[in-house]
Amino acid sequence: MLCSSSGYPYAMESYSGRKNESPGMPLGEDGDTQLLSKITDPTKESRGAMDYSRDGYVFICCWNDTAIVTVASNHQMHEPVSYIKRYSKLTKKKIHVTQPALI
Fold first, then answer.
1. Can you give the pLDDT at residue 15?
2. Of 2, 97, 3, which Cα lies nearest the Cα of 50?
3. One digit per residue, pLDDT tens: the chain, 103 residues?
4. Cβ count within 10 A of residue 49
5. Residue 17: DSSP 8-state
6. Cα 68 from chain centroid?
7. What is the Cβ-side half-sphere exposure of residue 19, based on CA atoms within 13 angstroms?
8. What's the per-residue H, E or C state across 43-94?
């Protein structure tokens, strides 16, 4: 089971007998690596992608620009979302990227 520090389960896999096990890897370690592979890498998200979480007091927002930008606030949220112009090395021109209000 893959859980947050507060106990919220992100992914769970119950043992149901023999499966496609990795050779030379212990059962516990094999299960851990399979669960961890379900977590997405935020650097592989598209530019302008965001993820946010709140607990009632603090709002945390991660925004993907050329690097991951993480901001926490007890006053503002991610909305309204605006569009900004950023230079893209791929297309060699300015593109529109979403940006949360916190940034």
1. 52
2. 97
3. 566 677 666 665 555 555 555 566 555 555 555 554 555 666 667 777 877 777 777 888 888 877 788 888 887 776 788 888 888 888 889 988 888 877 7
4. 16
5. S
6. 10
7. 10
8. HHCCCCCEEEEECCCCEEEEEECCCEEEEEECCCCCCCCEEEEEEECCCCEE
**What pLDDT was estimated at residue 29?**
52
Residue 70 · residue 61 · CB < 8 Å: yes
Check if the beta carbon of residue 103 is closer than 8 Å to that of residue 83. no
Q: In Å, how far from its chain's centre is CA 87? A: 23
- Cis check for the bond before 80: say yes or no (omega within 30 of 0): yes
- 46/66 Cα distance (integer angstroms): 10
The one-letter code for the residue type at 13 is E
Query: Phi/psi at 76 (nearest 5 deg)?
Result: -105, 165
